[in-house]
Write a structure and sequence with these properties.
By secondary structure, the protein is of the alpha+beta class. Helices cover 26% and strands 24% of the residues. The two termini are 32 Å apart.
Amino acid sequence: FNSITMMMSTSRALLISFLAYASIYSCSHGFSLEKPTSRRAALETLTITPFVTTFLPSPQDVAHAADDIDSSSSLPKTTPISAQWNAIDGLNSEDKKIVSFDKSAYQAMMRDQSRTPLFEQAIVNRLKAAEPDSQIVLDLGTGPFALFAVIAAKNGAKHVYAIEASKEAAATARETIEKLGYGDKITILEGFSTDITLPEKADFAVAEIVGSVASEEGAYATIYDAHKRLLKSPNEASSWIPSRIQTYAAPASYTLQNLFLPPAFDWTKLQGEPVRFNCRDEGLQLVSNPVLIEDISFADIITKGGSQQKQVTFTVDGERVEKNKAAFLEEFKRGNPREAEGLSVTTANSISGIALWPRLLLDDNVEVNSRHFPDGGHQKSHWQTVLPIMSEIPVPVKGGDEVSVTFDFTVPTEVTTPSSYKISGSVVRS
């Protein structure tokens, strides 16, 4: 599907031809590889050609797989699943330490109508709640457009300190604010915020440093430090926009893993690195209700910490499985594979891993959702849905089966140490 955005590396060159064929199964509403617009779209441009169709499963293979779904005696009672990766795996990064972005990714963030107007609303609300021309604002990760810094300056901030780690983005930000006439209101500071001391403490901070797994862009380490040094009242939720960041999760079915079974493609070559989807990509469907996995309150970050371990048991929802069959049928028909109907059945009755995506609570009244809340439905967003592939082949499931896993997220307090993620457990057939 052309909305899958996976960063290419030497060890992943084998995926080029695979993704080339995958691209013909285009999500009609999604984004393209040639013009990436999702948050994780700081990608190498790929020149693609059709993949050989001999990798399609035969009608006999599809029929056999469909029979397995109805024959519970032929399947193990319990199937182990697991995956682990770190925050920069497969993404653009500086010195393999922090996630970085290219211009198209920054533009996607700026243009995201499910994000930018809501941040603007929260910033304006916060400024209006204070005396005019009284608020010192800190913008963490301002980017090349200094977008939120400009919004704050335009709406009555006394002064804005805008910090940007990327040398190139900081230089562009300086040019941006001078062109817009805010050079006296906004100070661009280049470097990690953990290495910078402000001339004065801020009344509130804007920190849109939230990944597709909420903590993967170093938000915890950045806020942990800012909480100790850079804000006047860091224990108050009103001092932070967003005030809280979260990651939700649910088991998911995935078309391409069902379409390309071993030996056609060895999914273990991903080595735990997750597949990243446009949030409107119908090639991924959830099979159970989402559960809150990661919950970081900026005001409470010192006392509650960032690393989290949580055990969850998801129950496969038979109604979701039935609805997913129809969605998958349309996806498989779009690429004209043989046995589209059979493939839609086997895909809907399987899981490839646990999907994850972010949610941001900007203040008491404004929230940003990358997928529809609370059911996890598809919607447009520059953030992605992250799917670690947790088994060499899709694991068959049906309504009532349980997926019991432990989420072990290690989130360091050092901004240049990437967060690491591990999910392990089993699928238990009912």
